[in-house]
């Protein structure tokens, strides 16, 4: 059985991850690729409860607690959803993964990108995506797109400086791993963004179904 491929979508809020996850799903369906679509934090019953806790808890939360909740959700997700699907030969399309913890907790919360990576290694989360699509846009433009949405969650209420640090960390991850991370300018029209996403996907689709 050929192992499935693992694709992640990353970027700050409002860059179009949800919109383009649906687009990628339609491309995978057209290509006849069996896949699991999922998200983080979440993706399992326990992970969804942790998501609710980490995004909507009242009052203060230590940055370390936030990181541990994100990581706990990921440990469950990898062990019970992502790895089993990849081993069955299915592909996995995930809205955010470890890069998000590096960007938001490592850089945004200033816990240190190395520390975030080490914590995951210690817990046995060593899975690396085959393809990461990083939708990149200025913080202000992303927030503008989200202006119509309802009440912001705990992380969405953060400062511009927090999101700037997260964006820089994402871009540094992309520079360090150009074979894995494809940076797409998310400020383009949706059609332009999707042409680039399709190109990136075609690089890893099996030839017969491309
Ligand atoms: N988080 C973390 O801190 N650490 C971690 O390890 C993980 C996560 C895994 C939840 O993430 C929070 O968890 C997130 C990071 C943190 N907090 N923040 N901030 P989430 O992924 O569930 O939520 P989000 O980042 O806030 O994403 P979102 O709100 O769902 O936005 P999006 O999915 O990127 O965007 P969208 O809904 O697809 O698009 C937004 C709007 O723009 C919508 O009206 C679209 O129609 C429109 N759009 C999209 N593309 C375009 C283009 N190209 N042109 C014009 N308009 C567009």
How is this structure best described in words?
This protein has 8 helices and 5 strands. Strands 2-3-1-4-5 form a 5-stranded parallel sheet, with helices on both faces. The radius of gyration is 16 Å and the shape is globular. It is an alpha/beta fold and 210 residues long. Residues 13-19, 40-41, 55, 70, 95-96, 100-101, 104-105, 145-146, 155-156, 186, 189-190, 193 line the site of ligand Z5A.
Mean pLDDT: 95
Please give the order of strands in the largest beta sheet.
Answer: 2-3-1-4-5
**Beginning-to-end CA distance, first to last residue:** 20 Å
Broad structural category: alpha/beta
From the alpha-carbon coordinates, what is the Rg to the nearest angstrom?
Answer: 16 Å
Number of DSSP strands? Answer: 5
Percent range for β-strand residues: 5-15%
The hetero compounds bound to this protein are: ligand Z5A
């Amino acid at each position: 059985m050929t192992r499935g491929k693992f694709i992640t979508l990353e970027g700050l809020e409002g860059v179009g991850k949800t919109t383009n996850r649906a687009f990628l799903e339609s491309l995978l369906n057209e290509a006849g690729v069996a896949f699991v679509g999922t998200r983080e934090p979440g993706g399992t019953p326990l992970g969804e409860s942790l998501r609710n806790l980490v995004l909507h808890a009242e009052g203060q939360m230590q940055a370390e607690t936030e990181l541990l909740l994100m990581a706990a959700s990921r440990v469950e997700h990898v062990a019970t959803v992502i790895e089993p699907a990849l081993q069955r030969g299915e592909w996995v399309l995930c809205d955010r993964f470890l890069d998000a913890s590096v960007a938001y907790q490592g850089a945004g919360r200033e816990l240190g990108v190395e520390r975030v990576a080490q914590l995951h290694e210690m817990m046995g989360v060593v899975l690396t995506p085959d393809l990461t699509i990083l939708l990149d846009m200025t913080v202000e433009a992303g927030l503008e797109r989200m202006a119509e949405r309802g009440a912001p969650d705990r992380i969405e209420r953060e400062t511009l400086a927090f999101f700037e640090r997260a964006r820089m960390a994402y871009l540094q991850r992309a520079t360090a791993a150009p074979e894995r991370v494809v940076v797409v300018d998310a400020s383009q029209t949706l059609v332009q963004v999707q042409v680039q996403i399709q190109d990136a996907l075609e690089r890893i689709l099996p030839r017969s179904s491309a």
